[in-house]
Amino acid sequence: MVIYLLIILFVGFAYSSHKSNRDYMFSSRKITLPSFIATFVTTWYGGILEVGRFTYQNGIVTWFIFGFFYYISAFLFLKFFSYKIHNNNIDTIPEYFHKYFGYSSGLIASFIILLISSPAPYLMIFSTIFTYVYDISYFYSLLIGIFFSISYIISGGFKSIIRTDKIQFTLMYFGFIIIFISLYLNYGGITFLKNNLPCEHLSPISKLPLGYILSWSIISMITFIDPNIYQRVYTAKDKQTIKKGVLLSILFWIIFDFLTISVGLYAAAIIPQESLTHSPYLMISDIVLSPTLRIIFLISLLSIVMSSIDSFTFTSAITIAKEIGNNNTVIFNTRVGLIITCFTSLIIATSFKHVIDIWYLFGSIGASCILIPFIKILNTPQTKIHYPLTSLLIPGILCVIWIYMENPFGIDCLYAGVSMSIFMNFYFYRIKHS
Questions:
Q1: CA-closest candidate to residue 373, choices 51, 63, 112, 13
Q2: CB 50 within 8 A of CB 125
Q3: Under a CB-based contact definition with an 8 Å cutoff, are residues 371 and 418 in contact?
Q4: DSSP string of 293-311?
Q5: In sequence order, what are the residues at sequence separation of 6 or more whose Cβ sits closer than 8 angstroms to the Cβ of residue 338?
Q6: Distance between CA atoms of residues 122 and 112, nearest Å
Q7: Residues with Cβ < 8 Å from 149, sequence gap 6 or more?
Q8: Exposure on the CB side of residue 55, measured as CA atoms within 13 A
Q9: pTM, whole model, 2 decimals?
Q10: Structural domain spans, the chain
Q11: Residue 31 has what DSSP assignment?
Q12: How many angstroms separate the Cα of 311 from the Cα of each of 73, 155, 205, 291, 412?
């Protein structure tokens, strides 16, 4: 594992020169298809241990929550938004709000993007893996995760991320194919799972509330405002790269989701609930894999999470750099943004117990505040809206209040926030044209 970390560090630092600010931040918008797929797929799966935990507890409904809904959202993003993003010469999401809604709205949009793109959840997962293997504290594991996932970005920028993502793409599939085959050969296939799992684990009708499950269909639309997806589409070489890249990435997601959810189901069938003390993936690897194969699988997990840490940190740093301003020092500002992002991520990572809580909270606030306005800007940029700052803030405030009140009337906070956003954007638009 240490050798793997050093190799990633070396690859990240190798050939880290850049010709310009845009080359450092966006690879001069020349990302080819293999690079696009590698970085698109790997960045998507940073929360890998949470997928295992959720599958262990709830079964195949995980595929709908973390899989199917996101495939649909990614396809809709490709169809309706990706080409517009690529054609427009606007390199970040907050820049749209600055241009069409004004400075204050752009500042709020930047803050929301920082919540959405925080690497904290993925640092938490890195630390969980590292503390499981080594006798080291959770906090020091967070620092190690930051160093080995982020330090090479300081000199290499986006190109360093893409180079490391290519290696991590291969390793993530290799590790899960190994453990899936091992489980199948040792325990059998679907018959074993049917005989050893609770019936609801293999049924799409879960014990989870239907409203909660469906709320993830809206949370999945955060794909539309995910700064990492935006960056990859913006930096693609051409439209053909975007089209083939997104469609092939969805196919790779389907394959990988089959592997991860299958392994989670095997873990639920093999490990009794009362014996579960760590992540199901980590414990099942101890049971079924030889020491050598177990190391490969652990490296696979690290590859998945580290590919998200560097990407989310970098997009957060760019967001901060853009707000600092001054194009002559944009690389310096981005590096300042990296430091600020690392510091805030440590605070968030030590304040939450479960990764899914961060996704759900920040995702709900993000979707409530900027999802509808951003869709509106992309589709009807010529229209204006009165009181744009109010239309951004009120839905987010309502969402937070709803969470604090523990979802009154049994209505999920996301429904309340997004409904308010739709109403306010429509209402203020109607006011302008009445």
A1: 112
A2: yes
A3: yes
A4: HHHHHHHHHHHHHHHHHHH
A5: 150, 153, 154, 313, 314, 317
A6: 18
A7: 119, 126, 306, 309, 310, 313
A8: 28
A9: 0.91
A10: 2-355
A11: B
A12: 20, 14, 35, 31, 30
Domain 2-355 listed as CATH 3.10.20.310? no
Q: Note whether 420 and 397 are within 8 A (CB).
A: no
Strand partners, 198: none
Q: Note down pLDDT in tens along the chain; length 434 residues.
A: 899 999 999 998 886 677 788 889 998 889 999 999 999 999 888 788 888 999 999 899 999 888 999 999 999 999 999 999 999 888 899 999 998 888 999 999 999 999 999 999 999 999 999 999 998 899 999 999 999 888 899 888 999 999 999 999 999 999 999 999 999 999 999 999 999 998 888 887 777 788 778 878 888 888 899 999 999 999 999 999 999 999 999 999 999 999 999 999 999 999 998 888 888 999 999 999 999 999 999 999 999 999 999 999 999 999 999 898 776 688 889 999 999 999 999 999 998 888 888 888 888 898 899 999 999 888 887 766 778 888 899 999 999 899 888 888 878 888 899 999 998 887 766 555 54
Phi, psi of 236 (to 5 degrees): -65, 150
Q: Which two three-digit tokens encode residue 91?
A: 């390199």
Token pair for residue 397? 């405030």
State the residue for tokens 């940029």: 381
Q: Can you tell me which residue has the tokens 């998200």?
A: 308
Give the residue from 193, 175, 190 showing the smallest Cα distance to 289: 175
Q: How far apart are CA 8 and CA 30, in angstroms?
A: 23
Two tokens, residue 177: 């194919």
